[in-house]
Write the structure tokens for this entry.
Amino acid sequence: MSPIPLRHLLIGDEHDLPLLAALLPTLPRDAVGELVLELPIHRRPLLPTPSGIITRLLVLGRGWRRGDRACAALETWAGEWLLDEHLATEAHTVFVGLPHNPKVAALCERLSAQHPTFHLHRPQHTHSVR
């Protein structure tokens, strides 16, 4: 039986685009997973990804606060991929940007506490968003 490939999830907003643009070329060519970008309606960047990485855009429309759609995507992904009967948490590597967002930070802390072997990476820098 061949080994199960490592799954990647990368989540960010417009402030994370430079970091994601630098990170994506470092992924293996056979990488599988998702790139999820929470962006204002006027931003639609094309970031080159390995063929196995699907890009999803979460447009911030009227009534959405920054981080809401990213949190919903991360919670949905965790509910699907981090189930006890599914792959071990070690089979996933996750990058979640939006370091300026307290709701995203709280969700990441909760997921890390619930799944201690979960490979969750966050940027070290913080900046304010108005």
Observations:
- The first helix runs from residue 17 to 23.
- The chain has one domain: 7-121.
- The longest strand covers residues 32-40.
- The CA atoms of residues 29 and 50 lie 5 Å apart.
